[in-house]
Protein backbone atom coordinates (compact mmCIF):
# COMPACT_ATOMS: atom_id res chain seq x y z
CA UNK A 1 0.00 0.00 0.00
CA UNK A 2 1.27 3.48 -0.84
CA UNK A 3 2.41 5.92 1.79
CA UNK A 4 -0.23 8.07 3.39
CA UNK A 5 -0.69 11.57 2.03
CA UNK A 6 -0.23 13.59 5.22
CA UNK A 7 -1.17 17.17 4.36
CA UNK A 8 -3.56 18.96 2.09
CA UNK A 9 -5.39 15.85 0.86
CA UNK A 10 -8.54 16.45 2.86
CA UNK A 11 -9.32 19.98 1.77
CA UNK A 12 -8.13 19.31 -1.78
CA UNK A 13 -10.57 16.41 -2.22
CA UNK A 14 -13.40 18.38 -0.67
CA UNK A 15 -12.79 21.42 -2.87
CA UNK A 16 -12.29 19.39 -6.04
CA UNK A 17 -15.52 17.40 -6.08
CA UNK A 18 -17.71 19.32 -3.65
CA UNK A 19 -18.97 18.08 -0.30
CA UNK A 20 -22.21 16.53 -1.57
CA UNK A 21 -20.39 14.49 -4.19
CA UNK A 22 -17.73 13.45 -1.69
CA UNK A 23 -20.43 12.14 0.64
CA UNK A 24 -22.06 10.20 -2.18
CA UNK A 25 -18.78 8.62 -3.25
CA UNK A 26 -17.99 7.57 0.30
CA UNK A 27 -21.39 5.92 0.73
CA UNK A 28 -21.14 4.07 -2.57
CA UNK A 29 -17.78 2.67 -1.55
CA UNK A 30 -19.21 1.51 1.77
CA UNK A 31 -21.94 -0.35 -0.12
CA UNK A 32 -19.28 -1.91 -2.36
CA UNK A 33 -17.37 -3.05 0.73
CA UNK A 34 -20.56 -4.70 1.99
CA UNK A 35 -20.73 -6.59 -1.30
CA UNK A 36 -17.30 -8.21 -0.78
CA UNK A 37 -17.23 -11.84 0.42
CA UNK A 38 -16.72 -10.79 4.04
CA UNK A 39 -19.27 -7.96 4.06
CA UNK A 40 -19.10 -5.18 6.63
CA UNK A 41 -20.88 -3.31 9.42
CA UNK A 42 -22.78 -1.27 6.89
CA UNK A 43 -25.29 0.53 9.14
CA UNK A 44 -22.75 2.08 11.47
CA UNK A 45 -20.30 2.77 8.67
CA UNK A 46 -22.93 4.81 6.83
CA UNK A 47 -23.91 6.69 9.99
CA UNK A 48 -20.35 7.63 10.95
CA UNK A 49 -19.03 8.56 7.49
CA UNK A 50 -19.85 12.27 7.63
CA UNK A 51 -18.36 12.56 11.11
CA UNK A 52 -15.11 11.08 9.84
CA UNK A 53 -15.09 13.46 6.87
CA UNK A 54 -15.38 16.40 9.27
CA UNK A 55 -12.76 15.03 11.66
CA UNK A 56 -10.11 14.38 9.03
CA UNK A 57 -10.77 17.73 7.36
CA UNK A 58 -10.19 19.51 10.68
CA UNK A 59 -6.84 18.02 11.68
CA UNK A 60 -3.21 18.32 10.67
CA UNK A 61 -1.82 14.83 11.09
CA UNK A 62 1.67 15.83 10.01
CA UNK A 63 1.78 18.24 12.94
CA UNK A 64 0.62 15.62 15.45
CA UNK A 65 -3.18 15.57 15.39
CA UNK A 66 -4.87 12.16 15.38
CA UNK A 67 -8.30 10.85 14.39
CA UNK A 68 -9.17 7.57 16.12
CA UNK A 69 -12.18 5.49 15.12
CA UNK A 70 -13.01 4.00 18.49
CA UNK A 71 -16.09 2.21 17.11
CA UNK A 72 -13.70 0.11 15.05
CA UNK A 73 -16.37 -2.18 13.66
CA UNK A 74 -17.23 0.71 11.30
CA UNK A 75 -13.90 0.20 9.53
CA UNK A 76 -15.59 0.24 6.13
CA UNK A 77 -16.62 3.83 6.78
CA UNK A 78 -13.09 4.72 7.79
CA UNK A 79 -11.50 3.12 4.72
CA UNK A 80 -14.00 4.77 2.37
CA UNK A 81 -13.44 8.21 3.87
CA UNK A 82 -9.66 7.85 3.90
CA UNK A 83 -9.72 6.75 0.27
CA UNK A 84 -11.89 9.56 -1.04
CA UNK A 85 -9.99 12.19 0.94
CA UNK A 86 -6.79 10.99 -0.71
CA UNK A 87 -5.28 9.62 2.51
CA UNK A 88 -5.50 6.03 1.28
CA UNK A 89 -4.63 6.11 -2.44
CA UNK A 90 -5.74 2.56 -3.28
CA UNK A 91 -9.40 1.69 -3.58
CA UNK A 92 -10.09 -0.40 -0.43
CA UNK A 93 -12.69 -2.53 -2.23
CA UNK A 94 -9.95 -4.32 -4.16
CA UNK A 95 -8.35 -5.96 -1.13
CA UNK A 96 -10.72 -5.55 1.81
CA UNK A 97 -11.06 -8.74 3.80
CA UNK A 98 -8.89 -10.77 1.40
CA UNK A 99 -6.35 -13.28 2.69
CA UNK A 100 -3.20 -11.43 3.71
CA UNK A 101 -4.74 -7.97 3.31
CA UNK A 102 -4.09 -5.36 5.98
CA UNK A 103 -7.58 -3.98 5.37
CA UNK A 104 -9.30 -6.05 8.02
CA UNK A 105 -12.80 -5.83 9.44
CA UNK A 106 -11.48 -3.63 12.25
CA UNK A 107 -8.72 -1.04 11.74
CA UNK A 108 -5.19 -2.06 12.64
CA UNK A 109 -1.95 -0.16 13.05
CA UNK A 110 -0.38 -1.70 9.93
CA UNK A 111 -2.61 0.48 7.76
CA UNK A 112 -0.92 3.77 6.79
CA UNK A 113 -2.91 6.50 8.49
CA UNK A 114 -4.16 4.30 11.35
CA UNK A 115 -2.09 4.67 14.50
CA UNK A 116 -4.13 2.47 16.85
CA UNK A 117 -5.88 -0.85 16.31
CA UNK A 118 -9.48 -0.54 17.48
CA UNK A 119 -12.49 -2.79 17.74
CA UNK A 120 -12.63 -3.59 21.45
CA UNK A 121 -15.14 -0.91 22.32
CA UNK A 122 -13.96 1.90 24.56
CA UNK A 123 -10.28 1.38 23.85
CA UNK A 124 -10.08 4.00 21.11
CA UNK A 125 -11.48 6.62 23.47
CA UNK A 126 -8.76 5.80 25.97
CA UNK A 127 -6.10 5.85 23.24
CA UNK A 128 -7.29 9.33 22.31
CA UNK A 129 -7.00 10.59 25.86
CA UNK A 130 -3.52 9.09 26.08
CA UNK A 131 -2.49 10.74 22.81
CA UNK A 132 -3.76 14.14 23.95
CA UNK A 133 -1.90 13.79 27.25
CA UNK A 134 1.28 12.70 25.46
CA UNK A 135 1.15 15.72 23.18
CA UNK A 136 0.79 18.03 26.15
CA UNK A 137 3.75 16.39 27.88
CA UNK A 138 5.74 16.98 24.68
CA UNK A 139 4.95 20.67 25.02
CA UNK A 140 2.23 21.17 22.45
CA UNK A 141 -1.53 20.92 22.28
CA UNK A 142 -2.04 18.91 19.11
CA UNK A 143 -5.45 17.32 19.18
CA UNK A 144 -6.86 13.83 19.46
CA UNK A 145 -10.34 13.28 18.05
CA UNK A 146 -11.94 10.01 19.13
CA UNK A 147 -15.06 8.96 17.25
CA UNK A 148 -17.25 6.71 19.39
CA UNK A 149 -20.68 5.14 19.11
CA UNK A 150 -23.55 5.74 21.50
CA UNK A 151 -23.79 2.02 22.26
CA UNK A 152 -20.05 2.04 22.92
CA UNK A 153 -20.56 4.48 25.79
CA UNK A 154 -22.01 1.59 27.78
CA UNK A 155 -18.39 0.57 28.33
CA UNK A 156 -17.10 1.84 31.67
CA UNK A 157 -13.67 2.40 30.15
CA UNK A 158 -15.08 5.35 28.22
CA UNK A 159 -16.13 7.17 31.35
CA UNK A 160 -12.87 6.40 33.14
CA UNK A 161 -11.06 7.96 30.18
CA UNK A 162 -13.40 10.97 30.14
CA UNK A 163 -12.77 11.51 33.82
CA UNK A 164 -9.02 11.50 33.18
CA UNK A 165 -9.35 13.88 30.23
CA UNK A 166 -11.18 16.36 32.42
CA UNK A 167 -8.95 15.82 35.45
CA UNK A 168 -5.80 16.46 33.40
CA UNK A 169 -7.32 19.49 31.69
CA UNK A 170 -6.97 18.07 28.20
CA UNK A 171 -8.55 20.75 26.07
CA UNK A 172 -6.88 19.04 23.12
CA UNK A 173 -9.09 15.95 23.46
CA UNK A 174 -12.33 15.79 21.49
CA UNK A 175 -14.85 12.96 21.47
CA UNK A 176 -17.55 12.84 18.81
CA UNK A 177 -20.41 10.47 19.56
CA UNK A 178 -22.11 8.88 16.57
CA UNK A 179 -25.57 8.77 18.13
CA UNK A 180 -27.45 6.57 15.65
CA UNK A 181 -29.56 4.97 18.37
CA UNK A 182 -28.70 1.39 17.48
CA UNK A 183 -26.31 -1.37 18.43
CA UNK A 184 -25.80 -5.03 17.63
CA UNK A 185 -28.79 -6.31 19.61
CA UNK A 186 -31.28 -3.52 18.97
CA UNK A 187 -32.03 0.01 20.10
CA UNK A 188 -29.68 1.64 22.61
CA UNK A 189 -32.65 3.04 24.53
CA UNK A 190 -34.02 -0.47 25.01
CA UNK A 191 -30.74 -2.03 26.11
CA UNK A 192 -28.96 0.51 28.29
CA UNK A 193 -30.50 3.97 27.92
CA UNK A 194 -28.34 7.08 28.23
CA UNK A 195 -30.69 10.03 28.65
CA UNK A 196 -29.33 13.55 29.10
CA UNK A 197 -26.05 12.61 27.42
CA UNK A 198 -24.93 16.24 27.12
CA UNK A 199 -25.55 16.81 30.83
CA UNK A 200 -23.47 13.73 31.61
CA UNK A 201 -20.55 15.12 29.69
CA UNK A 202 -21.02 18.51 31.34
CA UNK A 203 -20.90 16.80 34.74
CA UNK A 204 -17.57 15.28 33.72
CA UNK A 205 -16.17 18.74 33.01
CA UNK A 206 -16.50 18.79 29.22
CA UNK A 207 -17.49 21.59 26.92
CA UNK A 208 -20.45 20.21 24.99
CA UNK A 209 -22.20 20.63 21.68
CA UNK A 210 -24.93 18.85 19.78
CA UNK A 211 -24.99 18.74 15.99
CA UNK A 212 -26.40 17.09 12.90
CA UNK A 213 -23.96 14.25 12.37
CA UNK A 214 -24.56 14.35 8.63
CA UNK A 215 -23.42 17.97 8.26
CA UNK A 216 -19.60 17.84 8.04
CA UNK A 217 -19.34 21.61 7.64
CA UNK A 218 -21.23 22.25 10.88
CA UNK A 219 -19.23 19.60 12.71
CA UNK A 220 -15.98 21.05 11.40
CA UNK A 221 -16.96 24.52 12.59
CA UNK A 222 -17.52 23.21 16.13
CA UNK A 223 -14.18 21.40 16.11
CA UNK A 224 -12.30 24.40 14.77
CA UNK A 225 -13.90 26.81 17.27
CA UNK A 226 -12.81 24.76 20.28
CA UNK A 227 -9.74 26.05 22.13
CA UNK A 228 -7.31 23.14 22.27
CA UNK A 229 -5.07 25.17 24.59
CA UNK A 230 -7.80 25.41 27.21
CA UNK A 231 -8.37 22.97 30.05
CA UNK A 232 -11.77 21.57 29.07
CA UNK A 233 -12.12 18.68 26.64
CA UNK A 234 -14.92 18.79 24.09
CA UNK A 235 -17.77 16.34 23.57
CA UNK A 236 -19.89 16.58 20.42
CA UNK A 237 -23.07 14.51 20.35
CA UNK A 238 -23.73 14.00 16.65
CA UNK A 239 -27.24 12.82 15.82
CA UNK A 240 -27.13 10.37 12.93
CA UNK A 241 -29.21 7.80 11.06
CA UNK A 242 -28.06 4.21 10.97
CA UNK A 243 -27.77 3.20 7.33
CA UNK A 244 -27.83 6.85 6.22
CA UNK A 245 -28.17 7.35 2.48
CA UNK A 246 -29.59 3.94 1.62
CA UNK A 247 -33.35 4.16 2.00
CA UNK A 248 -33.81 0.39 2.14
CA UNK A 249 -31.94 0.17 5.44
CA UNK A 250 -32.16 3.58 7.10
CA UNK A 251 -33.04 3.17 10.80
CA UNK A 252 -33.38 -0.58 10.31
CA UNK A 253 -31.72 -2.51 13.17
CA UNK A 254 -31.13 -5.42 10.78
CA UNK A 255 -28.58 -3.33 8.86
CA UNK A 256 -25.93 -3.67 11.56
CA UNK A 257 -23.93 -6.11 9.40
CA UNK A 258 -24.50 -7.24 5.84
CA UNK A 259 -22.99 -9.30 3.04
CA UNK A 260 -24.68 -8.01 -0.09
CA UNK A 261 -25.24 -9.65 -3.43
CA UNK A 262 -23.73 -7.57 -6.26
CA UNK A 263 -27.15 -6.89 -7.78
CA UNK A 264 -28.44 -5.53 -4.48
CA UNK A 265 -25.36 -3.38 -4.03
CA UNK A 266 -25.79 -1.97 -7.53
CA UNK A 267 -29.42 -1.10 -6.85
CA UNK A 268 -28.63 0.53 -3.51
CA UNK A 269 -25.80 2.60 -4.98
CA UNK A 270 -28.15 3.96 -7.61
CA UNK A 271 -30.46 5.30 -4.87
CA UNK A 272 -27.72 7.26 -3.07
CA UNK A 273 -28.51 10.87 -3.96
From TrEMBL:
<dbReference type="Pfam" id="PF00456">
    <property type="entry name" value="Transketolase_N"/>
</dbReference>
<dbReference type="InterPro" id="IPR005474">
    <property type="entry name" value="Transketolase_N"/>
</dbReference>
<comment type="similarity">
    <text>Belongs to the transketolase family.</text>
</comment>
<keyword id="KW-0786">Thiamine pyrophosphate</keyword>
<dbReference type="InterPro" id="IPR029061">
    <property type="entry name" value="THDP-binding"/>
</dbReference>
<feature type="domain" description="Transketolase N-terminal">
    <location>
        <begin position="31"/>
        <end position="269"/>
    </location>
</feature>
<protein>
    <submittedName>
        <fullName>Transketolase</fullName>
    </submittedName>
</protein>
Amino acid sequence: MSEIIETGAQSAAWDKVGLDELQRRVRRTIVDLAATPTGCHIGGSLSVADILIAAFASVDRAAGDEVILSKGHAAAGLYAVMHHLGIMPEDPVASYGAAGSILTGHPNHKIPGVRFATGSLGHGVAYGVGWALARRIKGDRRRAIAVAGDGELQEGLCWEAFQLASGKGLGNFIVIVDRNGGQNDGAVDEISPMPDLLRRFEAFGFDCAQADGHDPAALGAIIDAHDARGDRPLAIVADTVKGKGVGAIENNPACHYAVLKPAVAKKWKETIA
